[in-house]
Amino acid sequence: MAKITASVYTSHVPAIGAAMDLGKTKEDYWKPVFAGYDFSKQWMKDNKPDVIFLVYNDHATAFSLDMIPTFAIGTAAEYQPADEGWGPRPVPKVKGHPQLASHIAQSVIQQDFDLTIVNKMDVDHGLTVPLSLMCGELDPVKDAWPCPVIPFAVNVVQYPVPSGQRCFNLGQAIRKAVESFDEDLNVHIWGTGGMSHQLQGARAGLINRAWDNAWLDKLIADPAAAAATPHIDYVREAGSEGIELVMWLIARGAMSDVHGGKLTGLAPKLAHRFYHVPASNTAVGHLILENR
């Protein structure tokens, strides 16, 4: 059967992608950010998955305010990098895994989670920046991402957005779906977005280092407590865009120590933890957890 062996958590700051694309990664401002992913790039080479299930949010490219699904799974064979207003990022196209994606959709919907099935869409920086951080800079023509990717878009843009608890429970349903797939696949699940940041209003530029790191502690050791965090806490403490952290709870809920919303198995191994401020106008958080 297929099995989730690890989860990866990372911010998906668009300016990070721009720094890579424009050759600025060695500049003094950006060097500390990219140094935090040196371990991760080697880890990816040493722990290459067969498929990545990548949880992210769309930034008005595949979807708009006219239609925003709460949860949307990509079932296509490939996805083009989106033009977000200044041309697509110079990265390889993303190959999908229609068979596993369709199986997950079937299983998760039968577990009473409503998913929107998307057979065609472009993917923006929310998905491509994490891939670049974990896999390095690749030529869009000569190179390819190391494995197929299943995009899973979550609405954290237009309220109402899903609760952390709903996302945590959904992660458990995704793990059950993966484990019922009859092909022997090594699957990684990634949660992206966050950490604390606010892009508009009187608190634009807000970064809360203490709250971010306390939340990371909970995500690792007590994810049920992290899942119980109410929306108002994210907004108050982590800024209006801090709500993106609920997407990390999908990945954490998919780890093998979580059953029925409780920790009942062996805790995952913390392979890597990184935190840095600032990167553009946000905090960067990053974890790698391995199932034991």
Question: What is the beta-strand fraction?
Answer: 15-25%
What is the third-level CATH name, the topology? Protocatechuate 4,5-dioxygenase, Chain B
Strand order of the largest sheet: 6-3-7-2-8-1-12-11
Structural class: alpha/beta
Radius of gyration computed on alpha carbons: 17 Å
Residue-averaged pLDDT? 96
Largest sheet: 8 strands, mixed
Per CATH, the superfamily is LigB-like
**Which consecutive residue ranges, at least 5 long each, have pLDDT under 50?**
none
How would you spell out the order of helices and strands? EHHHEEEEHEHEHEHHHHEEEE
Tell me about this structure.
It is a single chain. This protein has about 290 residues and is an alpha/beta fold. The protein contains ten helices and twelve strands. The protein has an eight-stranded mixed beta sheet with strand order 6-3-7-2-8-1-12-11, sandwiched between helices. Helix 1 packs across helix 5, helix 4 (about 100-110) crosses helix 6 (about 165-180) and helix 6 runs parallel beside helix 10 (about 245-255). It has a single domain (about 5-285), classed as Protocatechuate 4,5-dioxygenase, Chain B.
